[in-house]
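Retro notes, structure queue

What went well: the backlog is down to a handful. What didn't: a couple of records were mislabeled last round, so from now on we paste the full input next to the output in the thread. Example, using Probable arginine--tRNA ligase, mitochondrial from Melipona bicolor:
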Amino acid sequence: MSNLYVTFGKKIDTYTFVLPLKSKYYDLTNKIKNINDIRNNFDNVAVENNNMYFNVLRDNYIKQILENNLFGVRPPLVDNKNIIVEFSSPNIAKPFHIGHLRSTIIGNCIANLNSFLQNEVTKINYLGDWGTQFGYVYIGMKMKNIDNIEMYTDPIKTLYTSYVDANKLAESNPNIHEHAKEIFRQLEFEDNEVYKNWEKIKQFTVLELEKTYKRLSVIFDQYEWESMYTAKKVNKIINKMEEMQLLKLDNNNRKAIAVSEEKNVPIMKSDGTSLYISRDIAAAIDRFERHKFDTMYYIVENGQTDHFNNLIQILHKLNLSWADRLKHVKFGRVHGMSTRKGTAVFLEDILNKAKEIMKQRQLEAKSKSVLSVIINRT
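Corresponding output:
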């Protein structure tokens, strides 16, 4: 190999190799040009004076490496599994922040690994759009007279500022909390003006979120909502729990289920509205009925460990044989941001700042080709 010479032509963006030949070269040129792999990856193939010359078509070559970057590794020959990965899952009244970025990247990686193993993968983004907090959002929107144009322009930040403003008002007006609870109660029982308006808000939100996901090269198969599992839908499961004599009233008059001798988990509020855990129970049952999954991964920070342990235990109490197919993939929590106080930082703003820094570094860098690709994609 000491006689192999390589030169780089900047103007034509190719590498030229000069390879000494030990055999006769009179019939090599045409044979080489007729080999498919060479035609696709090399140009200007020539044989002269016992040397073979050729240019590597860099773009084609790199493209093939990136698209077939297995380097001899192949997935094991096992039965294909049906996998669900629920990840990212921001709360639409709160910023899509750096914590959601962790869930998004880890979840997408797990989905890609399972796709590589030739499993059937469904990527779900389970958006938080339910609970008393959305009563606060609705109050804030009414306070500011938010119209559809403003919602369409920047829905997530509009919802966030509405939530922050309503919380500030609640500090001096205790009636705000009761008003927020009543608005959520109306949302739970659907068929009313509040519910119809909320449906429009959700549509605007998905359009905005998809802009951020596009920058991260993340595509979801399904967008699902907490509001898919309203009190009407949860009541079917509550009735089954009551038939199985699993429920009792706690000190706050909430329906609760015992997951151990020492621990009761509330399932339904005293006013008949659902809780996060009851909606997750309904979602897990609904997904198994629709997908018959072998494993469902929840990519959520480790502060939710107890929640997912409770969820699995409750599904066991319901005698659902697939309860252990639920897996919580946890990661460290990002501290120091408060939604109520308005100190949270939007991921979109972080990405924009990163883009500015990269652009400045590109201008200062001697070699700009790789950076330009990254900046153009973001």
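Agreed that this is the format going forward. Reviewer comment attached to the example: The first strand starts at residue 5 and ends at 9.
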